[in-house]
Amino acid sequence: MLLSGYDPVMYSRILTGVTLAFHIIFATIGVGVPLMIALAEWIGIKRGDDHYLLMARRWARGFVITVAVGVVTGTAIGLQLSLLWPTFMRVAGQSIALPLFMETFAFFFEAIFLGIYLYTWERFKKKTTHLLLLIPVVLGSSASACFITIVNAFMNSPAGVTVKDGKIVDISPFGAMLSPAMPTKVSHVLVTAYLTCAFVLAAISAWSLLKGRNHVYYKKALKLTMMSAFVFIIASAVIGDLSGKYLAKYQPEKLAAMEWHFDTSKQAPLVLGGILTDDNEIKYGFKIPFALSILAHGLPNAEVTGLNDIPKDEHPPLYIHYLFDLKMGFVAMMVVIAGAFMLLLYRKRSAAFGNKWMLRGIILAAPLAMMTIEHGWIFSEVGRQPWLLRGIMRTSEGATTSDHVDTMLIVFVLLYVVLGVSAVTVLIRMFRSNRAEDEIAAKGFKGGDEL
Amino acid sequence: MSYEVLGITVLWIFLFGYLIVASIDFGAGFFSYYSAVTGQRHLINNIIERYLSPVWEVTNVFLVFFFVGIVGFFPDTAFYYGTALLVPGSVAIVLLAIRGSYYAFNTYGTNKNNRFYMLLYGASGLLIPASLSTVMTISEGGYIEVDPSGGVTFLYGKLFGSTYSWTVVLLALVSVLYISAMFLSYYADRANDRGAFEVVRKYALAWSGPTILCSLLVFFAIRGHNPVHFDQMKHYAWMFVLSFACFLVAIYFLWTRRRLGVAFVFVMLQFGFAFFGYGAGHMPYVLYPYLTIHDNFTSEPMAIALIAVFILGLLLLIPSLYLLMRLFLFDTKYVQGKRAK
Q1: Is residue A31's pLDDT more than 90?
Q2: Is the terminal CB of chain B with fewer CB neighbours within 10 Å at N or C?
Q3: Are B249 and B218 in contact (CB under 8 A)?
Q4: Main localization of the protein (chain B) (predicted)?
Q5: What pLDDT is attached to residue B341?
Q6: pLDDT tens-digit profile of A295-331?
Q7: Tens digit of pLDDT for each residue in B265-321?
Q8: Which residue of A has its CA nearest to B103?
Q9: What DSSP designation does A6 have?
């Protein structure tokens, strides 16, 4: 035992958290990278530029490694849901089984076509045929993300079910999928996955350029990925704002806890940072007047519900305030980096691909984007506490009562360390031993010099 | 047909699908390692790699489909099996994770034919069926204790001390090797790879006798462990007889080196009859004697929704699976390695 008292609920939460924290990295790559591969291959075919086709091929080669880890950790979390949260899954099976079931079909579809796509580069006479095979992969992976997020949205704002004496009666399977949290959550998850992958791929190109490998291939890759990142970051900002409005309406306790907003009031300010005294006074925080009212309802005069109007035993932990602020800090840095690149691209093109600080910034953006995904997810899950299914089941009621969850925690942590280290080693070796410029020279690929 | 029977039939079909495709995969991993140890790897590795590379991910989905489906159709299974199977389930997850990732690292990475990766891959191929088969064992009852307040306890001592559970493990291992070798014989024959064919044919013949022997052992063990189930299986005796007949046909074709595709179809029929005979005898219990398909079925609207989605899903899947098989299984040029990748 790790601690003196064995608490299966706590260990179940930690183990689920560890599995998801690891899986989410590969899941995000799994959702976003196919779209970027499709973009590259499409441009390559349209312009008759072999560089872009090679880009698609090289990205796909690395992608396969991450997919493998994504698939096995996805299987792990799928089974762990039943193993660690049997009571919850009994209720979820009754109410929200439909999107889970749909997800397996989406995954099936994706898996079949990914297998075909990877082994048919030279198989068809028309190049577009091969690109068409990628469309089911893009659709399947995005649909998977969509269906799983629908399940999570249901946990945050159950819909389509009637609750009687704490039990679910009268279920509408499709109604449960259309919970109020669904639109903002699904779009946020998808767009930020695309954004993160654009930054990750951009960072790889930036790394090569920074090392003085100035082949036009890397510049093309950097331009494609950074322009995509710029578009996606604007989209994420708009959706992020809508998420705030959703929270104010359907999960006011989460919004209030993340902003340390205690008294229900109009013209509520947004607090950045600060510390909380014992009597819930905020010290040293930076207040932006009206900003919380605007985030919550779009109007500076709007009333925002405070934590004092919510029963004490339903308060989420207050440290989510820091998680949220940290996340917004990361977002701000990414906006600056993407914005700076676009500015340079149109004002001083050589600097966009040559300025060392610009390239370092882009390399930094990749881990920032991944950390934002992790922080955003932890923030969202912790902010739902003490509920597992908001208003229906508390987290403590859903967990397993089995022994040995603590031992399993150690086993899985070891597994993820081994898998993570192996995957990274394999990926690094793969691209070190076979550089893009060498491959272009060896295979005689032809591509234009203009960007 | 009532919704619950339809539901369990669909799930059973997918589990059967997993049994076949996963056995091919697991066995191939073992043979790949075994042949490396005995110095015959150069003979059979090409056909194994050519078949497995594009399809390994699909194999995994069959399993995911089954356990997601069973929670949807029979939500109480999540509670009972979930609580009981924490440790064996986690062991299976770890093994599946190691196997899937190291397969990809070995095949797609630069460090090909790494002995250590191959050992992980080959050994996990035998350990996974062993650990997954315990779920079947548990479903017979006697390994779980439910106290009056509804708490579920798994009796490890009983599982490890029971003859029945070990005969099931044995059958699982032997069947995996037999199914896989039979498939690889067919694939090697299509590839026109005589050297590989002779090696895998020997494997298939070697494992055929033990398969039947272990099946008989399981029959005897189940009679001792769960007589109710055994009596019900006797009602479906014809299915087990047909299963044995299919086995004889398959072995006949393999022995005479003819019609290996038909031989493999008969292998599938052999396991199909036995698997469905076993399943039919198991009805109506999902977990003896606590869960039945009637009392623990999901609500009607959910059942209708799941079945509707299932039918739509099949309309999408069947053509896709057909395309996959046409490109990598029935395309002679690909099978013979004459296609550019």
Answers
A1: yes
A2: N
A3: no
A4: membrane
A5: 57
A6: 888 888 888 888 888 888 888 888 888 888 888 889 9
A7: 999 999 999 999 888 888 888 888 888 888 878 888 888 888 888 888 888 888 888
A8: A68
A9: -
Task: For residue A43, give the nearest of A117, A115, A128 by alpha carbon.
Answer: A128
d(CA A54, nearest CA chain B) in Å: 14
In chain A, what residues touch B121 (CB-CB under 8 Å)?
none
Q: Taking 60 as the threshold, does the pLDDT of residue B259 lie above it? A: yes
- Indicate whether A196 pLDDT > 70: yes
Provide the shortest C-alpha distance from residue A410 to chain B (in Å): 12
> Of B72, B79, B104, which has the smallest distance from its Cβ to A64's Cβ?
B104
How many domains, in total, are found in chain B?
Answer: 1
Q: What does the pLDDT look like over A270-295, one tens digit per residue?
A: 888 888 887 778 888 888 888 888 88
A325 lies in some domain:
yes
- Residue A291 domain flag: no
A376: which strand partners? Answer: none
DSSP state of A212: T
Contact indicator for B95, A414 with CB cutoff of 8 Å? no
Cβ(A175)–Cβ(A201) below 8 Å: no
Name residue, tokens 């590259």.
A40
Strands (E), A188-333: 265-266, 270-272, 275-276, 282-283, 286-288, 303-304
Q: Which residue of B has its CA nearest to A117?
A: B54
Chain A residues with beta carbon closer than 8 angstroms to that of B313: 102, 105, 108
A96 to chain B: which residues are within 8 Å by CB?
A: none
The confidence score (pLDDT) of residue B182 equals 92
In whole angstroms, what is the distance from residue A47 CA to residue A57 CA? 16
Whole-number pLDDT of residue B337: 74
Range of the domain at A47: 8-264+305-443
Give residue B163's domain range. 3-336
Q: Is residue A162 part of a domain?
A: yes
> Closest partner residue to A61 among B63, B72, B108, by Cβ?
B108
Residue B341 lies in a domain: no
Closest-CA residue in chain A for B320?
A112
Whether residues B58 and A107 touch (CB distance < 8 A) is answered with no
Domain-located, residue A60: yes
Cβ within 8 Å of residue B11, ≥6 positions away: B66, B69, B70, B73
Which residues in chain A touch residue B301, judged by CB atoms under 8 angstroms apart?
A: 171-173
Q: Please name the member of A101, A171, A412 whose beta carbon is closest to the beta carbon of B301.
A: A171
Query: In this complex, do A80 and B105 lie within 8 Å of one another by their Cβ atoms?
Result: no
| CB-CB contact of A246 with A181 (8 Å) | yes
Residue A435 and residue A439: Cα distance in Å, rounded? 6
| Of A235, A156, A153, residue with least CA distance to A193 | A235
Nearest Cα residue to B184 out of B278, B320, B46, B72: B46
B329 within domain boundaries: yes
Residue carrying structure tokens 């002779």:
B198
ipTM field: 0.83
Residue A362 has pLDDT above 90, yes or no: yes
List of E strands, A290-429:
303-304, 387-389, 393-394
Q: Give the residue from chain B lying closest to A68, CA to CA.
A: B101
**Number of neighbours of residue A132 by Cβ within 10 angstroms:** 14
* Residues forming beta bridges with residue A304, ordered by sequence position: A265
Distance between CA atoms of residues A161 and B49, nearest Å = 49
Q: What is the pLDDT of residues B75-127, one digit of tens each?
A: 888 888 888 888 888 988 999 888 888 888 877 777 666 777 778 888 888 88
Q: Do B105 and A422 touch (CB under 8 A)?
A: yes
Mean pLDDT estimate for chain A? 87
Query: Residue A335 has which token pair?
Result: 């906006």
